[in-house]
Specification:
Length: 459
């Protein structure tokens, strides 16, 4: 990892710790009781009872001193607050978009976008829809179709851009279904459902060409745009000498619009964006936004949140931060692989994904091997993770997913390298005792997004 003119081998955090928050140690007996009260769903566990919380990287970042200073500058005027215009200027500079709508978080941006463009019988192609994206597409009456390249479905593959969309399949879908059934095409960067894997600029250009040919709007789900840009700089030929802001700008220049959860690469605890080039579409979305989010210059957020977001979008493109971030996650993956743990390779930008199907082959998909690993990891070490497999994406009319994964999502600027070492050690120990893991059955579930509130019992 490069810092200035020399390379260091030890990963160091490119920041100093100014405030600390204690975390509670629990015993094995306490965790067993907690699991039963939560009905073996880690979303139901109180945060105070979690030692290392890797449930999500969304909204869990530690804000910087400059962001806290921005909080104090927040202008709480209902309309036209200075905070909005600071955010507007920063996002416009970073992305080139001029139609910028703030929302309270990414799923609000998704709801507004799909309510505006989608209806019954339409189809939305993506490399991989994540859970709320898919749910919002389906809520509009449309069908979500995943078109990721085959390498993404092979956890052991070391393809540098496993998040890429299969452009040939995109073209075939459009030609089969007809352009009139496809209101937009979307690409998620990085590909969260597929292991946090990046998408290349070359692939984005190819998708753009197909969309132009058929006159289909091209949108990004750009929650982790900066991490994706760093992978492009590191892995894509001809990109190593380009700056992160340059790569970010070209990424957005290829799109007609974007949804962004600022709770990821915005480095804030709440907030999102909906971006358009087409002014008429932006006006439709703005009217929709007013119904549920608030006036267009605050979008369901306090002025202080807008200011913190503006500063977060400055800090996220710092290459020293991104080098630390990506290297730290890769280090966790390397430690786990060294201990024999099967993971999605190479490690993603925001998380390491355990291949739960190979981790515990004695548990069939019908008994949710990913959820078994999640439960086992909390029971063993007090670590909270999330299943991304048959619980999250199966059930109802949905086919079984291609992979059974467990995501260890690393909050930004929250945990030190010793925390990361603890996680690696705990996962390896659990793998060494994997035969003790038990399958689960669902005993209660909602009609949609069941992974958040479903209740389980062990088989």
């Amino acid at each position: 990892m490069l810092f200035g003119a020399f390379e260091v081998k030890t990963i160091i955090e490119p920041f100093r710790i100014k405030t600390v928050e204690p975390i509670r140690m629990t015993t094995h007996r306490e965790r067993e009781a907690i699991l039963r009260v939560a009905r073996f769903n880690l979303f139901g566990v109180h945060a105070v009872d979690v030692l290392i919380d890797l449930l999500t990287d969304s909204g869990t970042s530690a804000m910087s001193s400059e962001q806290w200073a921005a909080i104090m500058r927040g202008d709480e005027s209902y309309a036209g607050a200075r905070s909005f215009f600071r955010l507007y200027d920063r996002v416009c500079e970073m992305t080139g978009f001029k139609e910028i709508l703030p929302t309270h978080q990414g799923r609000a941006s998704e709801r507004i976008l799909f309510d505006t463009l989608c209806s019954e019988g339409l189809i939305v192609p993506n490399n991989c829809h994540f859970d709320t994206t898919r749910a919002n597409v389906e809520q509009s009456g449309a069908q979500a179709v995943d078109l990721v390249i085959d390498a993404c479905k092979d956890p052991a593959s070391r393809h540098p851009f496993k998040g890429n969309m299969d452009v040939d399949r995109l073209r075939a879908l459009i030609e089969k279904e007809g352009r009139e059934r496809i209101p937009l095409c979307m690409v998620t960067i990085t590909n969260n459902s597929g292991g946090g894997q990046p998408v290349s600029l070359e692939n984005l250009r190819s998708v753009r060409e197909v969309c132009d040919e058929f006159e289909i709007p091209f949108f990004l789900d750009a929650c982790r745009f900066a991490e994706n840009a760093y992978f492009i700089k590191q892995r894509e030929p001809g990109m190593s000498d380009r700056s992160i802001p340059e790569i970010v700008r070209e990424t957005f220049d290829l799109a007609d619009g974007a949804t962004i959860s600022a709770k990821k690469d915005g480095l804030v605890n709440i907030g999102g964006l909906l971006l358009f080039r087409d002014r008429d579409l932006a006006l439709q979305a703005r009217n929709n936004l007013i119904l549920t989010e608030g006036f267009p210059t605050y979008g369901g957020l306090a002025g202080r949140d807008l200011d913190a977001m503006a500063q977060g979008f400055v800090e996220i493109v710092d290459e020293h931060y991104l080098a630390y971030r990506i290297r730290s996650v890769a280090y966790l993956g390397e430690k786990m692989v060294a201990g024999g743990v099967p993971i999605m390779e190479p490690p993603g930008g925001h998380a390491v994904y355990i291949d739960a199907g190979r981790f515990c082959p004695h548990i069939p998909p019908t008994q949710f091997p990913g959820q078994a690993v999640v439960v086992g990891l909390y029971r063993h070490a007090g670590i909270r993770a999330v299943e991304i497999g048959s619980v999250m994406f199966g059930g109802g009319e949905h086919d079984a997913p291609d992979m059974e994964l467990v995501r260890l999502a690393i909050p930004r600027r929250v945990y030190t390298q010793s925390h990361i070492d603890y996680v690696a050690e705990a996962v390896v120990e659990l793998y060494e005792n994997r035969d003790s893991l038990k399958g689960l059955r669902i005993v209660e579930e909602p009609p949609a997004l069941r992974h958040f509130t479903a209740a389980f019992e062990e088989c």
